[in-house]
Design goal:
By secondary structure, the protein is mostly beta strands. Helix content is about 5%, strand content about 65%. It contains 1 helix and 19 strands. The chain has a 19-stranded mixed beta barrel. The two termini are about 30 Å apart.
Amino acid sequence: MVKGPGLYSDIGKKARDLLYKDYQSDHKFTITTYSPTGVAITSSGIKKGDLFLADVNTQLKRNNITTDMKVDTNSNLSTTITVNEPVPGLKAIISFKVPDQRSGKVELQYLHDYAGICASVGVDANPIVNFSGVVGTNISSVGADVSFDSKTGNLTKYNAGFSFSNADLIAALTLNDKGDTLSASYYHTVKPLTNTLVGAEVNHSFSKNENTITVGTQHSLDPLTTVKARVNNVGKASALIQHEWRPKSLFTLSGEVDTKAIDKSAKFGLALALKP
């Protein structure tokens, strides 16, 4: 486990990754190449039904500064500049998108042994200001996440969360959507040698008086092949297999069926990521 409580976005993250990461119903292809000067160029394409989307990302690292520039099929140019540790524990991130003049944002992240703070502000006349903070240790922590719209003078987001961890278990409780959604998650390492994991998430909506329950598991068949499965209380069952057929190059095949409507066609997704 890392030292310190981390950022607010880390609360419940391992359970979310176990239950939702890498599952998809689209076809995605990604290839990364490196120039002799160390510039990484990543080209991605994704097919969503009859729609095909693509983008090209260029990443340049120099000392502690990383610059990412991405162009997509809609001719948007997104730029992110990250400065790692100008002072110990601090990270500065500047991002903007052309031609969107309201997309500029400056973000600061600070990690301490007993706290994690993230603050961001939009670069325009009436910015949205976001602040999140966590206090505690790598065993237990509590935090909050708040956004303020300076144009309307309203709080657009206020969330709170609690996390508890030990060597093989992580539990989290969060209150989201302005207090309307209560979420509890559980992540457990059953067998480290085979990367066998189990996890669950329960969401309760107070306004709709509805519960959503998702449980999932992961297991490594061998050092290069991983299988995952999940099911929720509305009858959706999903599974995937991911194979690292060469170092850093992954092939992922996933599928989903509605167990309450077997007559409907199953959804299948395919992802191929190539790296030299």
